[in-house]
# Entry
Amino acid sequence: MDSKPALLKSPFAPLLLISPFFFWGTAMVAMKGVIPHTTPLFMAGIRLVPAGMLVLLVGMLLGRPQPRGW
# Structure
């Protein structure tokens, strides 16, 4: 029995592995124009909330158990 998840067998697996670095780079370019007009805490929230939702979504799609408390 093969232990690799079906997601890693996909022909798009290399693109999936590279995508976080691509999105991280584009976020830096987008933030450059906004940084003088807002606070660092706001920018951190804008970056972390969507990333956290994405992590939870991928966890649900892969069938991983979700946290049950703090």
In short: The chain has a mean pLDDT of 79. Helices lie at 6-9, 13-32, 40-61.
